[in-house]
Known about the structure:
Blueprint: H1 7-10, H2 18-39, H3 47-58, H4 63-75, E1 83-90, E2 96-103, H5 106-119, E3 123-124, E4 134-143, H6 150-159, E5 164-167, E6 171-176, H7 178-190, E7 195-204, E8 208-209, H8 213-227, E9 232-237, E10 239-240
Parallel strand pairs: 8-10
Antiparallel strand pairs: 1-2, 1-3, 2-9, 4-6, 4-7, 5-6
Helix pairs in contact: 2-3, 2-4, 5-8
Amino acid sequence: MAGHSKFANIRHRKEKNDAARGRIFTRLGREIAVSVKTGGADPASNVRLREAIAKAKSENMPNDTIERSIKKAAGDLSAVNYESITYEGYGPKGAAIIIDVLTDNRNRAAGNVRNAFTKGGGNMGTSGCVAFLFDQKGLIVVEKNDTVDEDELMLLALDAGAEDFSVQEDCYEILTLPENFGNVRDTLEKANIPMISAEVAMLPQTETALTDPDDIKKMSKLLNLLDDDEDVQNVYHNAIW
């Protein structure tokens, strides 16, 4: 089932220096807080919270930090007032971009996202303008190492409900339907399979190749501006270069 890697294209990720990791933990904390507010503080009965915890663990967020975030949100639900918004638009050469935001200031979030599109040579679009170019899938990435047997991992994942298993140069990618993601992730966790990442994400159906150095520079600037914005939770795009 080896195939072309979609993971590198679905979500922009920068090298995680201290500043970047701080922003990541802030975003994860917001997602945990909103999950607790909407479904309670018990991961056993709150699917969204379980997924938020899984993502936090895959980003190496310490367990005590995760627990503090849950307890803080549960103890002061009135303070959790983040709004979930999705923006869509186009980058250089019409590359499709989806941006998930959790914010306590809608005007600030919209202004920052619009500014990123403008400075990155793109255009902010209307709701639904590019969403149809993506599929929502559960995506689990497992690092290749001597402790993970490829055949055993594939069988374990497929038996748990995975839709596809692919072998990449330095990792294994496991795709699931959104409704099967939790069971597959939990199965791998119980088997002590180390996961680089585990999340429900938007995967592009097609790719937009950037070959002009100026387009690549603009796209990189757009993504970097979004990455620096603490309101931005996830960025998905279909550009390759």
